[in-house]
Amino acid sequence: MRTSEFYESLPAKCCSQCNEPLEELADCYSPTCPKCRGLTFYPLSPVNVARPDTPEP
Question: Does pTM surpass 0.70?
Answer without folding.
Answer: no
